[in-house]
Every structure is written in C-alpha cells, then in structure tokens.
UniProtKB/TrEMBL annotation:
Keyword Membrane on entry: no
UniProt name for this protein: OPA3-domain-containing protein
Gene Ontology CC terms: mitochondrion
Region (Disordered): 66-102
Upper classification of the organism: Eukaryota, Fungi, Dikarya, Ascomycota, Pezizomycotina
Source organism: Hyaloscypha bicolor E
Amino acid sequence: MVPLPLFKFAALFVRHVSKYGANWIKVQAHDHPKFRAVAARYGQTMHQINMRMAVTLLRDAAAEKRAREKAEAPTVKTEEQMRHDEAMKEKNAAKEKAEKKEASKSIWRRRFRPLPENKAVDLFADVIGDSFILLIASGLILYEYIRAKGKPDVNAEKIAELSEKLKELDQREIELEEAERARQKRVETLEQALEEMRKASGKKRSLPCAS
C-alpha cells in the first residue's frame, strides 16, 4: 500500500475534528441560554425565508403549468375568434402580471406560523454546523490548491524533457543526413576521377598501337 502524504492525514484529521466541532455547536445551541435565544430567533428567520421561497416556487410552477396546458390545447378557431382570443390573452396577461407582482409582494411580507422553539433551534444549529464543516472543507481545498500550484508541474517537466530529446534527435538526424550527403559527394568525386583516369589510360594505350 502506498503511504499517503502527511497532508492527507492532516486533512482527514481536521475534517474529523470539524464534525465534532459541528456537533458541539449543535449541543451548545440547546444548552447555552444566550446561544439558544440567538439560535431560536435566527432559526425562525430561516424558517420564514424557507417558507416564502417554497410558496413562491410552487406558485410559479403552477402558473407555468397552466400556461403550458393552455398553449398546447389543440383548437380550430375563426379569424374573429382569434382576434378576440388575442385581445383576451393580452388582457389576461396584464392581469396575471399584476396579480403575480402583488402576490410576490404579499408572500415576502407575509408572516407564516412560527416553528416551536426546539425546532427553530435545531434548524439554526443544523445550518451553522453544516456551514462550519463546509468552511473547513473549503479551507482545506483552497490550501491544497495553493500548495499544489506552488509545486513544479511534473507532467510539464516530463513534456519539456521529451521535447528536448526530440529536438536532439531531430538535430542528430539532420547531421547524419548532411554527413551522408557529404560522403555521397566524395564517392561521386572519386568515381569521376577514376573514370577520367580510365579514359586517360585508354588513350595512352591507343597511341602506341597507332604508331
């Protein structure tokens, strides 16, 4: 088994400790009087926000469903009916827009039934505990990113090394080609010299025969 780096063990330890920290926060939210009062107050605020968002999303989904069903309904209409429907559609659209705007305002100003104190404290404690764990995890990820960024890139170094070797091989190949061309040129020069020597010796032999 390959041993994990020391940082990995430290990260696991910190994450494990952060869970105990989150649980400690939840316990203190119930046991500590001042903390419990703060938790109950902000827990109720979170509950109100959750309820308003849920109602807003449900109303938007219902409106979209009605509009989609109306648009997909197959009908055959005359030109007069189409003009009438267009006028009614514009009128209804303006009315729905105004109603939606008014409903949206009323939802965000509306006060829903508050939670019991224990449930409000639980909600606040859960959010704070999970946020604490998320904060620790984000810090570890950020630290690991910075630490990894400061290290030399092994893959980049390998790629640079391979590129350098490839350049050396290309240069060596060019040198070998030049040496081969020079050798071929010398061979051609020698062959030409030998051919001239053969021609010269042939002429010398033909001269005594002619005399």
